[in-house]
Write a structure and sequence with these properties.
The complex is a heterodimer of chains A (403) and B (253). Chain A has a domain at 70-347. In chain A, 19% of the residues lie in helices and 40% in strands. Chain A contains seven helices and 20 strands. With 403 residues, chain A is of the alpha/beta class. Chain A has helices at 11-22, 26-35, 50-53, 113-121, 350-357, 363-379, 385-400; strands spanning 78-83, 86-87, 97-103, 124-130, 138-144, 150-159, 164-173, 179-188, 193-200, 207-216, 221-228, 233-242, 248-257, 262-271, 277-278, 281-286, 291-300, 308-317, 323-332, 338-346. In chain A, helix 1 runs antiparallel to helix 2 (26-35) and helix 6 runs antiparallel to helix 7. Chain B has a single domain (6-248), classed as Rossmann fold (3-Layer(aba) Sandwich). In chain B, helix 4 packs across helix 6. The longest helix of chain B is centred in the middle third of the chain and has 15 residues, at 99-113. Chain B is globular, with a radius of gyration of 18 Å. The N and C termini of chain B lie far apart (40 Å). Classes of the chains: A alpha/beta (403), B alpha/beta (253). At the A-B interface, helix 5 and helix 6 of A face helix 2, strand 7 and helix 3 of B.
Chain lengths: 403, 253
Amino acid sequence: MRANFPVRLGPAEDTLIAQLKAAGADQAAERITVAGLPTRRVESYHYTDLKTLLRTIPPLATAANEASAPALRIPGAYNLMIANGAIQNASTAPAGIIVGRTQGGVLTTRDDVLVHVNNALSGEALTLTLESSVDPVIQIERRIEGEAAHVADALKVFLADGATATIIETFSGSDAAHVGNHATYIALGKDAVLTHITLDLSARATSHFATNEYHLADGAKLRTLIIHLGSGLARTNVFPRMDGAGAHADVTGLNLVSDGQHADITMETLHAVPHTSSQPLFKSISRGRSKAVVQGKLVVARDAQKTDAKFMHQGLMLSDEAEILSKPELEIYADDVVCGHGSTCGKLDEDSLFYLLSRGIPKAEAETMLVRGFIAELLDPVEDAELNEALQGVVDGWLLGGM
Amino acid sequence: MTTPVLEIRNLHARIEDREILKGVNLIIPPGEVHAIMGRNGSGKSTLSYVLAGKEDYEITEGEVLLNGENILELGPDERAAAGLFLAFQYPIEIPGVATMTFLKAALNAQRKARGEEELKTPDFMRLVKEAGSQLNIDSDMLKRPLNVGFSGGEKKRAEIMQMALLKPSLAVLDETDSGLDIDALQVVSKGVNALRDGQRSMLVITHYQRLLNHIVPDVVHVFSDGRIVESGDKDLALKLEAEGYANYGGEAA
């Protein structure tokens, strides 16, 4: 590794190093001292150059003493909240859920700055043990309130064998230049079925970072949906690991970016054992001068024969200045697998638009219908009716907020 | 003389540098069904797209009057609200847009443009059910995304159902018989004939005479090289079927 030349550190890195040292995370501090924040020369940050995009890091958060309105109301949901990194007392949990706390550092160590920083700085992690199927949607609100703050928080979930659950995490807070670094670790037991949604509703001034790590045992079924639409800069790492035969993951995500926004979903799915499958499907819609990124890597271990995995990213550009970047990668060590990738990118289909117009539907409405149609493939599989409606409302709000 | 439903005066249109319509003149009085026949590439389908307002074509000369109003300055949606309907030769598949959502949006948009109240959901459902039953369109088909996975016949039936719901004053049917077997042709023709009410006019564009046995036209026009070269009654279609288009100039197909 060529790290022997001095890297010039900026104010963001200086602050980060000081925060890490103060937390006793000397190793993480040392990494940043040596290498700095990742630039475009680092493969996995090629399109999201943190050194350029992240000029300052605000001070670490103090306790929140005010709370904005709920970011998303889902009737009937069981709510938990982490505000400025501190786990709030929750109401009585529904049957099947044990709410607890553990020391932070929930993510498996890997070569990624967001993972290192989260593991070093997240204090107490919220834990949920789902012993059996849980009917109500579990909503975890992660907030950053008050003055601009740097927050690292963490959630760890165990879903028991055969259990079914739906979890949505919403990220929101005050309109300030926060830096949020959120970790979620979820282990799915045998034949467990989970829908997990992460929805970034942060204010525009906020930089939102998240890492979602999943471990799937035999026969487990996972559906994930990452939605970026709030913050000015968003990056979600999604790391599913297929650990048991018959495990399947529908890894999905949606970047909705308007003028001035930059959103990045970076996936690395590991098929570790034979007979697992995954269907990563991402969509990006970009308007104004904005940038959406999806990187998707499928890794198939040497023993993982009969892996069936197909990555797809579809981009829709609604302006001439819009930018959508797509990087599929396959890293396959087994020899009897079906793996593929595809990317498409374009504007709204003119023939489709003409068809709707020819039936009397005005242009703006027709465009909205087509964009909704484009997104439907991601929202339709969310089965809970109230949750589906809430998500549809969020997406509609974005669509109608200026085409 | 009553105002014609459609009057086309010396219409010229081009796509890029190629002139496709070279002076079309046509008058359709209320309640009449006119057929346009012509060989492939004669500009028949272009005429239908130009009438509906597709952007790809540049109008270089002429006028199109719908019920006396020039519609060439109107967008496709405004032309629809003014009473024009185009049944597509190849209806577009639109994934993710439910057929019912689309129908409701179209109906209400046109009502709104005409200053009428939006339909209430039960009234809308009743209208769709009525229109659908005549064309053998069941609720399963309506639940699917618009035209997605529809067979050729289903697509054409769905077009005619839209026409029945939207009640245009002028319907342009572009090669509605293409891709239809005999049974489907009869269902579609029956649907079209049910909409002939003495007021509504139709322009039926077709390559074959076959369709005109089912939808009997008042006037038949022969289209060649971007203009109408002969007009006559329904017997003209039979003559064409027997003799081909060779007598009408242009290059042989």
